[in-house]
Design brief:
By secondary structure, the protein is α/β, with parallel strands linked by helices. It has helices spanning 5-29, 44-61, 76-84, 94-98, 151-161, 168-181, 191-201, 206-213, 219-231, 251-259, 290-298, 322-336, and strands at 34-38, 65-69, 89-91, 102-106, 122-128, 141-144, 233-235, 238-245, 267-274, 277-284, 302-307, 310-316, 346-347. It folds into two domains: 5-213, inorganic pyrophosphatase (n-terminal core), CATH 3.90.1640; 220-347, Diaminopimelate Epimerase, Chain A, domain 1 (Roll), CATH 3.10.310.40. Strand 7 (233-235) and strand 8 (238-245) form a beta hairpin. Helix 3 runs antiparallel to helix 8. The radius of gyration is 21 Å and the shape is globular.
Length: 356
């Protein structure tokens, strides 16, 4: 990265000890198979990081690993990425998890509440760019860097330290992972992300990237968009939107990304019900505050995580009406952002069509 021969040498020198330690720890476990587990409903950064780790362990120490995940891959672009990579991820059932002994976590951590880490399993390694959690101390190997904008950046440094150059599909996945998590280097990107981005840019499959980024979307996407826009209310510099029942769990995040582009808006929270949970996604352009805010919003009601400008959480409904739970979360959000909860929200779109 840096200029990229110079960057490679610098990165390899810095990463060699970490790489040797990783290989030593993984080899000492003596497992014939390791499950690589990204967070639930994996996004491009999680997908690319998982595939990169599998490639690193296969090429570096000859270890075969499989990649599993919980939740669903619902966003059209993410589905297109997985198809392009040859469907390397397997959606896991409770039966599958009962047979898992050793796990490596990517883009998530133990205790984060956003993964299906089996109870009692050995966590051999953790790679993440979110704030370090106390539970991560139990992992045999952990590389957690909250000053990096994407886990894909971290995994690339390991590949280069091992003299493994990513082929075009892996380079494309890692590039897209960095691009989406840092919003094209404009959101929470550090120097390592910049160097990784430009190193990978020269090695990607451009046509494949175009097809991934412009994947066709189903009718349900536009129905969800309609629901989000009609439900959205502006409170000063904040937009809140309750999407109702969602067909897929990442719809709230996708709508929050879109609504943050509204002129004059600094904060967005989108909520929606999926199965037995209320999910929420928070976005901001105020660097460093989203993770803290979402934890205060959810509080004792559920689990939350994130950092920088994007975060999310979930609250178990336990029989409560999802719109009521969403209303309480919205009141708490307004209070935390110093906006009087009784402030009337201004709709983005008037429900009544005008007649001319």
């Amino acid at each position: 990265m840096a200029t990229c021969d110079g960057c490679r040498n610098a990165e390899k020198a810095m990463m060699q000890g970490w790489l040797e330690r990783l290989f030593e720890v993984v080899s000492s476990i003596g497992a014939a198979d390791i499950l690589i587990l990204p967070h639930n409903d994996p996004d491009p950064d999680a997908i690319a990081s998982a595939v990169a780790l599998r490639h690193l362990l296969a090429q570096g120490i000859g270890l075969s690993c499989r990649i599993g995940y919980g939740g669903i891959i619902g966003r059209a672009e993410n589905k297109a990425l997985v198809r392009y990579l040859g469907q390397p991820l397997q959606r896991l059932s409770s039966t599958d998890l009962s047979q898992v002994d050793v796990v490596a976590l990517v883009d998530t951590q133990p205790g984060a509440g956003n993964n299906i880490l089996p109870p009692g399993s050995t966590v051999v390694a953790v790679f993440d760019h979110h704030p370090r959690r106390e539970e991560t101390a139990a992992a045999a190997f952990a590389d957690v860097r909250s000053d990096v904008g994407a886990t894909s950046t971290m995994l690339l440094t390991y590949l280069l330290a091992a003299n493994i150059e990513p082929d075009p599909p892996l380079a494309t996945a890692l590039f897209y992972g960095i691009k989406t998590d840092t919003m094209g280097l404009g959101r929470g990107a550090g120097q390592a992300d910049v160097e990784a981005y430009f190193y990978l840019q020269r090695r990607i499959d451009i046509q494949a990237l175009v097809e991934i980024e412009h994947a066709q979307v189903p009718l349900e996407y536009f129905q969800g968009l309609d629901a989000a826009l009609h439900a959205a209310r502006i409170y000063d510099r904040v937009v809140l939107s309750y999407l109702g029942r969602m067909d897929r769990p990442d719809m709230a995040a996708e709508m929050a990304d879109l609504l943050l582009r509204l002129e004059g808006i600094r904060w967005v929270m989108c909520t929606g019900a999926y199965k037995e949970d209320l999910l929420l996604s928070v976005r901001t352009d105020e660097q460093g505050e989203a993770g803290r805010l979402v934890q205060e919003i959810v509080g004792e009601w559920g689990s939350a995580g994130g950092h920088g400008t994007m975060s999310g959480g979930q609250v178990a409904l336990r029989g409560e009406a999802p719109e009521l739970v969403a209303w309480h979360l919205e009141r708490r959000t307004l209070a935390l952002l110093n906006i009087a909860p009784e402030t009337p929200g201004r709709p983005i779109i008037d429900r009544a069509p005008s007649c001319k």
